[in-house]
Amino acid sequence: MARQAVRPGDHVRGRGAGHGHGSRAALVTSSVPGSRVAIVTGAARGIGAAVARRLAADGLAIGLLDLDSAACEPVVQDIRAAGGRAIAVGADVVDEDVVEAAVARVTDELGAPTVLVNNAGIIRDHLLFRMSVADWDSVMEVHLRGAFLMSRAVQGHMVTAGFGRIVNLSSGSALGNRGQANYSAAKAGLQGFTKTLALELGRFGVTANAVAPGFIETEMTAETAERVGLSFEDFTARAAEDIPVGRTGHPDDIAHCVSFFVSPEAGFVSGQVLYAAGGPRG
Ligand SMILES: NC(=O)c1ccc[n+]([C@@H]2O[C@H](COP(=O)([O-])OP(=O)(O)OC[C@H]3O[C@@H](n4cnc5c(N)ncnc54)[C@H](O)[C@@H]3O)[C@@H](O)[C@H]2O)c1
């Protein structure tokens, strides 16, 4: 396991011994805390739940945040049953005070978080002429304000540790998608946010990257199927026809990408957007 090769206090910079000679430690460019703690927002289901399970399997303790803490419990129990550490925290990522309190609770109960996955999301799809101001604002708030508040609340712990990983969930819709003026603007906005965090926090050993999924089978895409009047089966089958690898995605496909960005060895990859869509187009 590569992670076991990274000890607390490993601190390799510049051209020291082992640099460029295949040493594992040489891949790590900042201190890695001994016990790694991650916060995953929107972790009760779908992509967030898969990310929480995957990072727990990678050895991280997980604070699962969602609107309703009880909805996170099945995932928390699964992680604990597998020998991991996890807690469920009820939190609305849009609320500044709630976000600060949620991060404080994770810090008290699991330790200082040095990994943050901004995954919480909603859709309020309508063609422009039918889109209400509430549809616009709520999507901006959850994706952009939520990612901003969470990142601001956690970054101090990362800077103190000299190590951090922020992963934001963007979307192929950032490239434009009918009926999603609000969502595509928010997901494109998250890409700019990601690149700016990478610029500001890189010197502290913190990377920021985005995963932009294509069609992933979750309750979010089930909601879209309902809106367009198709069964989920027909909807996914039609979507798969346009995807080069011939299938729609699953939450674990995205969890795998997040696991890479979060890994200590990915410290030289920052400010990137990974389109995980079964083909070259998001
Ligand atoms: N499913 C896809 O095809 C797809 C594609 C591209 C991007 N994404 C993005 O991936 C992320 C996860 O999507 P999913 O398909 O798993 O969605 P999902 O609807 O299944 O799950 C989203 C979770 O976020 C939580 N959430 C919503 N608002 C919240 C808030 N204010 N505070 C805290 N939690 C909140 C929900 O309760 C839910 O548990 C989202 O950001 C989404 O936009 C999904």
Protein described:
This protein has two domains: 31-214 and 254-270, 3-Layer(aba) Sandwich (Rossmann fold); 218-248, no CATH class. It has helices at 46-57, 69-81, 96-109, 133-161, 181-201, 219-227, 232-241, 251-262, and strands at 37-41, 61-66, 86-90, 115-118, 164-169, 206-213, 273-276. Strands 3-2-1-4-5-6-7 form a seven-stranded parallel beta sheet, with helices on both faces. Helix 5 links the parallel strand 5 and strand 6 (206-213). Mean pLDDT is 91; it is low at 1-29. It starts with 36 loop residues before the first strand and ends in a 6-residue tail after the last strand. With 282 residues, it is an alpha/beta fold. Helix content is 43%, strand content 13%. The protein has eight helices and seven strands. Helix 1 packs across helix 8 (251-262), helix 3 (96-109) packs parallel to helix 4 (133-161) and helix 4 runs parallel beside helix 5. The structure holds nicotinamide-adenine-dinucleotide (NAD).
Secondary structure layout:
Blueprint: E1 37-41, H1 46-57, E2 61-66, H2 69-81, E3 86-90, H3 96-109, E4 115-118, H4 133-161, E5 164-169, H5 181-201, E6 206-213, H6 219-227, H7 232-241, H8 251-262, E7 273-276
Parallel strand pairs: 1-2, 1-4, 2-3, 4-5, 5-6, 6-7
The structure holds nicotinamide-adenine-dinucleotide.
Residues 41-42, 44-48, 65-67, 92-94, 119-122, 142, 146, 169, 171, 213, 215-216, 218-221 line the site of nicotinamide-adenine-dinucleotide (NAD).
